[in-house]
Amino acid sequence: MTKHTSLTFGLTTLLALSLMSCGSGSGGTTPPITPPGDTAGSPSSAPNTVSGRVLDTRGTPIAGALIWVLPAVTTGLVTVHTDVQGHYQSPALVNVPYRTYGYVQTEYHGQSFCLRLAADQLNEYDAFSPDPAGTVVRNFKVQLSGKIPDANTANRYFGAEVRLMHHTWRNDQQLAASDSAVEVTLVPDGALIDGSLGQTLVRSAKVGENFLYDIPIGHYNVTATEVHRDGTRTPLVLGEYQGPPSAQTTLDFLTSGGCGGSTSNVSRAFLYVARP
To answer: Within the chain, which residues score under 70 in pLDDT?
Structure first.
């Protein structure tokens, strides 16, 4: 506790009262993401609010998207959801700086993913103070790849992450050389999580680095090749830890946790590789 405890408590209380006035709860627990009633039209320009719209990758409005309005200098949380036209508007906010975060929950290959939404403009990641003359606009969109501008750690992307594991399934097998790189080709098998067809990806990582970043969430057929320092190439076998390995395998991503935070709820995927 600091000498500002009483101020923080007061601001948090006001935030909670604001949230209660619109029929929602506040705190660290994410409420279920369920589409609200059939509400049309854009939000009003009510003072001291934040409002905006959420669109998918085709520009279609998303109903039921979750918006966090998070104070930048104290505790508390205001949550709202988009209507059937993709619009949202917060209740009146107390005069402290805020940041907004957006999430959309979607089913894909039998799992429930919660995707972190991208801000429509780069400056919309910045903190804002409520405007007594009207609403502050923060729009969001689905984005499957690209660096997350407001992430507080390195290598945080809208796409998922794959770690290459060098592993042998037989005693006579060899690993890729320590001065080689592993080139991985990922071919989408069906639509990506947003319904788009996707495209073939070719990513590489030096042995010892072993991470492939920013892979759009999808179901992939995967092959791997060792690229030697002199440029020659050796096909690799790959698969799961228990095996058996093969010249081609499939790759799926799994969920981890619920909505909230700076990234989507996607676990790191693993690919085990070795020489044939």
So the answer is: 1-42
